[in-house]
């Protein structure tokens, strides 16, 4: 009897322990599921603002929007794939503008980062016409929807990154300015006096094309909302003739061409000058272009064309020589710009063009050990 009672007591005691443990287990499980799904939701659905009542609890990491303007596919998508894969925190978004009718799917890109990222109402971009500006605005329209996007980096289909994601991110985020290559353009006859009533000549600027600018959110919104300068450009900034590689000239060579205006080399620069915002820009491009390959024996690649790097050009020395550039000289203004980041001397360029696919494969291979 004693024995039984004692057993029964033991049974009851262990029974009690069992329920205590089960309860604890259920509580821990529930808490984990709740916290887990919160975290997952936050990671996977950054656009859905489920946490409006707790804005400070789930503050978004600032993101960079990478906006690609491509003709068709992105032949260097694999380089960007490796670049984006490094960022575990998803501090970026991607959008692509390609010609109407071209679709990024599993047959046209092997990179997941470019699937379903296409602007579906794209326009036919005629190189050097105002349609390039339209493409830019379409990309901004999509990218501005996500409030976490704080910088907007324009890239072409032949650009490669020179550094890893973290370095690139820190460099771009370390200043609140936009990076826009911009200089006064008084030499040539590209300014059309018919613009005068809206865009006075004192605000007329020249720079590199849209595809090599980085905008902050404020400037991106100004570009998207602009209803004043853009129509003037559509009407009065047109190219005159179309010599071969005409639009690839970085500086006026022949100034006799009256009003031979290339919209996307003037638009952002002029708009920001017009709005009195030049104090908020770093007046250089982060994308390196080699303009003069006078040493090249290849006739096609000589002169004022952007050099295209082929497999044989794509050496570690080439990449190093681009990374080592720490100042830029602007001939038309006799101005030398020393590059800095976070108040310290720094490389000028984060991206470079133009690379063929074999060249990019080689570069990626070279840089892998350091990544
Ligand atoms: C483009 O996408 C948006 C949203 O994803 C959709 O509402 C719209 O209908 C699409 N437009 C076209 C032309 O497919
Ligand atoms: C990549 O590099 C390795 C050794 O560094 C070399 O054996 C291989 O051929 C390279 N591949 C390409 C495609 O260049
Ligand atoms: C990224 O690149 C920078 C500069 O080249 C280097 O200092 C840093 O260690 C790299 N970071 C990673 C995570 O590889």
UniProtKB/TrEMBL annotation:
<feature type="transmembrane region" description="Helical">
    <location>
        <begin position="21"/>
        <end position="41"/>
    </location>
</feature>
<keyword id="KW-1133">Transmembrane helix</keyword>
<dbReference type="GO" id="GO:0016020">
    <property type="term" value="C:membrane"/>
</dbReference>
<protein>
    <submittedName>
        <fullName>Glycosyltransferase BC10 isoform X1</fullName>
    </submittedName>
</protein>
<dbReference type="GO" id="GO:0016757">
    <property type="term" value="F:glycosyltransferase activity"/>
</dbReference>
<dbReference type="Pfam" id="PF02485">
    <property type="entry name" value="Branch"/>
</dbReference>
<keyword id="KW-0328">Glycosyltransferase</keyword>
<keyword id="KW-0472">Membrane</keyword>
<keyword id="KW-0325">Glycoprotein</keyword>
<keyword id="KW-0808">Transferase</keyword>
<dbReference type="InterPro" id="IPR044174">
    <property type="entry name" value="BC10-like"/>
</dbReference>
<dbReference type="InterPro" id="IPR003406">
    <property type="entry name" value="Glyco_trans_14"/>
</dbReference>
<keyword id="KW-0812">Transmembrane</keyword>
